[in-house]
């Protein structure tokens, strides 16, 4: 995103946060988006998180375990990695692909088929009506998905570790319960909140300013995912630097 | 009544509109005609605020529109109904929800009142009972009629129609044209139709302005259009073999 685009993005956000015409209609749209972003992504996040947790356990066991390092370290490294980095960031990147492309193509199609013009002619603040519910759903549902992802990633580590024999159930549980710092959860949720905002607002911006036809909508959708992923990684670094 | 004065609009170095003026009265069907690229859709978009002209003014019943801010424009936009070239129906909503949408947004009516209004509008465009269909299930002509039903749902004072006949067969085109004329006379709306369809021009053109290369070349009624000596307009009006053959009969 160059500076001109960033300026346009900020102006769009200013329009998004104008006072809604009718709260009841916005509320309905928010719940619909929560269902799409949150409930609709649960299965995907569950599968990915469980497998990542299991693989993480096997890799930690392969790399770290020696006679000098207790096996409980596998549980604690898996826990901290999942909470601080893997669950928020991997979930966000997966969601940027799934939700970001959907948002961008939905709004882009509405743009090229004059549906956004129709909203504006009716006197409706189209950025607010189309984008605000998505952003609110994103910043509420992505943290919930990340909490679920943390739990399943740690559980996946337990399953993978015990099935492979890399770690015993008692050692793994001792590892995940020893020296737990609840602040890591706060850091993860801050990341999830920021990522939820990026996942919804960046694709919405890309879709909102599409010009042309089907080809341009598809290009905007691709660009939305790429820009979202890069922005997520940059913000991941910034938030980590600021909070840890 | 809508009045435009000296509208200028450019895209980069391309000056699309070069000082267009006109006065569009209520209760008559006003047409903006011209060939492709003549600037008629750009003029329409300047009038409704989708484009911002560099110079000139648009006045809705003595209310200057071009200098208004977003919130002030909303009051006028609530009085505007518009039929888009591609109908611009919301894909995710049924016919009923499409027509009810502006009512949901801007009125405090009960659901029954809104439903009655939807059914009335559908009846007015001869689409009774099509409430639960989605836009993807409608033909081109039906989409246009639903677009008209949505445009009139809020009892607009101003009705804008962009290329109502594009993609329609001649018979359906006439039905749409007649519907626009009937609604204009019935509700005394200020109706502005952008078209290049000569059947519409001859059928419903009470007041016509002709644009060519971004300039207004002619204004008058459909009774006068065939007797003009403006070369550019004659080239446009009598471009088809049918119109050439019928030239002497007007």
TrEMBL record, chain A:
PANTHER family membership: ABC TRANSPORTER PERMEASE PROTEIN-RELATED (PTHR30188), PROTEIN TRIGALACTOSYLDIACYLGLYCEROL 1, CHLOROPLASTIC (PTHR30188:SF4)
Ubl conjugation as UniProt keyword: no
InterPro entries: Permease_MalE (IPR030802)
Pfam family, one: MlaE
UniProt key word Transmembrane: yes
Keywords per UniProt: Membrane, Transmembrane, Transmembrane helix
GO molecular function, one term: phospholipid transporter activity
Residue stretches spanning the membrane: 36-62, 135-159, 180-200, 220-239
Name the UniProt record assigns to this protein: Phospholipid/cholesterol/gamma-HCH transport system permease protein
Gene Ontology CC terms: ATP-binding cassette (ABC) transporter complex
Automatic annotation (TrEMBL), chain B:
Pfam family, one: ABC_tran
Keyword vocabulary terms for this entry: ATP-binding, Nucleotide-binding, Transport
One Gene Ontology term of the molecular function aspect: ATP hydrolysis activity
Superkingdom assignment: Bacteria
UniProt keyword ATP-binding present: yes
Matching InterPro entries: AAA+_ATPase, ABC_transporter-like_ATP-bd, ABC_transporter-like_CS, P-loop_NTPase
PROSITE patterns with a match to the protein in the record: ABC_TRANSPORTER_1 (PS00211), ABC_TRANSPORTER_2 (PS50893)
Gene3D superfamilies: P-loop containing nucleotide triphosphate hydrolases
Domain named ABC transporter: residues: 2-238
Protein name (record): Phospholipid/cholesterol/gamma-HCH transport system ATP-binding protein
Species of origin: Pedobacter metabolipauper
Taxonomic lineage: Bacteria, Pseudomonadati, Bacteroidota, Sphingobacteriia, Sphingobacteriales
